From TrEMBL:
This is DUF559 domain-containing protein. It comes from Flavipsychrobacter stenotrophus. It holds the Pfam family DUF559. Residues 168-225 form the DUF559 domain. Signal peptide: none annotated.
Length: 229
């Protein structure tokens, strides 16, 4: 973001008979010019200018300040009012809402997301990994099917923590181990095994874990982050 090319300088004119007279110079630096434009004014003029700026700034909506589209903002405002997960969130009307409501793919992810933000653990959401443990290349950003969207996709963890030499992949599974189908369990075991071979730590939490023991879930993730590499 470029700096506003305006500088305000206080000038004190000393007068032994009338006392010090305070005036101000407003200096406007024009791009591409080797000279400045200066205006002199008094305190009342500056106060009026400040008031006019405040009125303009206050008229800007929260989503305009954050650079969020109006349609997305309407979706966020509706969710912030009616959504159960939003009701207890400390990040309402923020850019985190965009991630939570438009990027995350399940209520479990949305429930864990603000807790991880509060814990000050650095992470990325929906991070695509290829079979070499690197970020998967995007083939088609508009494609909904992940296998078609990315080249050589191995997995897309719900939450990815780079964490030095021991990166962590966190998954929030809707089913416990025994509730998954054999095909799902086999696929997950294969992904976990490959990630571990590549040096990743894999952490999977069930819906019951997230819904009933979310503080413990966050604590377990933090312990893994703080463990020695």
């Amino acid at each position: 973001m470029s700096k506003v090319p305006i500088e305000i300088i206080k000038v004190v004119n000393e007068n032994q008979y009338r006392g010090d007279a305070v005036r101000f110079q407003v200096v406007v630096r024009e791009k591409g010019q080797n000279w400045d434009r200066c205006f002199e004014c008094g305190l009342d003029d500056l106060i009026k200018f400040r008031t006019e700026l405040s009125v303009i700034i206050d008229s800007i909506s929260w989503y305009q300040k954050l650079g969020i589209e109006a349609a997305t903002a309407a979706h966020i405002e509706k969710a912030n009012t009616a959504d159960e997960i939003c009701s207890s969130c400390n990040f309402k009307q923020s850019k985190n809402c965009v991630t939570c409501l438009t990027v995350l793919q399940s209520p479990l992810e949305r429930k864990l997301y603000p807790k991880l933000l509060e814990s000050n653990i650095y992470f990325e959401v929906q991070f695509p990994l290829n079979r070499f443990g690197k970020k998967a290349h995007i083939n088609n950003s508009e494609e909904k099917d992940l296998r078609l969207k990315y080249a050589d996709l191995l997995t897309q963890p719900d939450f990815y923590l780079p964490n030095g030499r021991r990166p962590i992949c966190v998954y929030t599974d809707g089913h416990s181990y025994h509730e998954r189908t054999e095909e799902q369990a086999k696929r997950d075991r294969g992904i976990d095994r490959k990630l571990q071979e590549l040096g990743f730590v894999v952490m999977r939490f069930t819906g019951k874990d997230v819904r009933e023991s979310i503080d413990k879930v966050v604590g377990d993730i933090r312990k893994m982050v703080e463990a020695k590499n």
